[in-house]
Automatic annotation (TrEMBL):
Residues 5-97 form the Endoplasmic reticulum vesicle transporter N-terminal domain. InterPro entries: Erv, Erv_C, Erv_N. Belongs to the ERGIC family. The chain crosses the membrane at residues 20-41, 249-270. It comes from Megalops atlanticus. The keyword Membrane applies. Plays a role in transport between endoplasmic reticulum and Golgi. Residues 110-271 form the Endoplasmic reticulum vesicle transporter C-terminal domain. The keyword Endoplasmic reticulum applies. This is Endoplasmic reticulum-Golgi intermediate compartment protein.
Length: 290
């Protein structure tokens, strides 16, 4: 006797002459296909799109930076001449630079009466400060006006990622034009290292920061008022990492199988209930007629 491999078929076929098509079944089948198509397209959209996963850990992510952080500053002082504007940098490693000029530009405003300072420089990864002041000017003005607008203050690389929201330019748009002209401004920054890793594994290093500020009038040892715009910073030991990921293929296939199987099962139950109720109603009607 030959062995029939068809015995392993768990999907037994019912002859067509033993099945009965109905209008209700056709309607449910069409709705079922439309519903499955909708769910399939939704899952396909989610599979194609990427998601951003973030995590926190304690480390210095950019070890190849040489212990430096790039800074980009753009600030306007509409009531202070460019000849008086300078950038000073200090930190706890002993750096003390007055009148930093490398990679900086001064653009006259208001017919030379004001100034916009744009600078790119680096700071050490230790607590310190950099400030815009008249300290580097050859002759100090009698009443320097430090009212200002900060267009940009950013650290590290610029991240142009739509799904990553963070305080990469927290001071952008800060307007102090209504402040006391002779007042000094302190911006206390807590810098948070940030890493973004794309689908290809390439990492980009940037920095977010939180800010608090205060305004006060400062006097020198000679009794003169010498205002400045201070940016005092410290680094957080916590690193924020954003990782770009895509849904695994096996999960997508599993979800599609669940959609198809679940939809067919539920539709079959609904159709069976409707058909059974319809047949019972017909029997009741026949019983009344007889």
């Amino acid at each position: 006797m030959t062995f029939d491999v068809r015995r392993f078929d768990i999907y037994r076929k019912v002859p067509k002459d033993l099945t009965q098509p109905t209008y209700t079944g056709a309607f449910i089948s069409i709705c079922c296909c439309v519903f499955m198509l909708f769910l399939f397209l939704s899952e396909l959209t989610g599979f194609i799109a990427t998601e951003i996963v973030n995590e926190l850990y304690v480390d210095d992510p950019d070890k190849d930076s040489g212990g430096k952080i790039d800074v980009s500053l753009n600030i306007s002082l509409p009531n202070l001449n460019c000849d008086l504007v300078g950038l000073d940098i200090q930190d706890e490693m002993g750096r003390h630079e007055v009148g930093h000029i490398d990679n900086s530009m001064k653009v006259p405003l208001n017919n030379g009466y004001g100034c916009r300072f744009e600078g790119k420089f680096s700071i050490n990864k230790v607590p310190g400060n950099f400030h815009v002041s008249t300290h580097s000017a050859t002759a100090q003005p009698q009443n320097p006006d430090m009212t200002h607008i900060i267009h940009k203050l950013a650290f590290g690389e610029k991240l142009q990622v739509q799904n990553v929201q963070g305080a990469f330019n927290a001071l952008g748009g800060a307007n102090r034009l209504e402040s006391n002209p002779l007042a000094s401004h302190d911006y206390i920054l807590k810098i948070v290292p940030t890493v973004y890793e794309d689908m290809g594994g390439k990492q980009r290093f940037s920095y977010q920061y939180t800010v608090a500020n205060k305004e006060y009038v400062a006097y020198s040892h000679t009794g003169r008022i010498i205002p400045a715009i201070w940016f005092r910073y410290d680094l957080s030991p916590i690193t924020v990492k954003y990782t770009e990921r895509r849904q695994p293929l096996y999960r997508f296939i599993t979800t599609i199988c669940a959609i198809i199987g679940g939809t067919f099962t539920v539709a079959g139950i609904i159709d069976s209930c409707i058909f059974t109720a319809s047949e019972a109603w017909k029997k009741i009607q026949l019983g009344k007629m007889s």
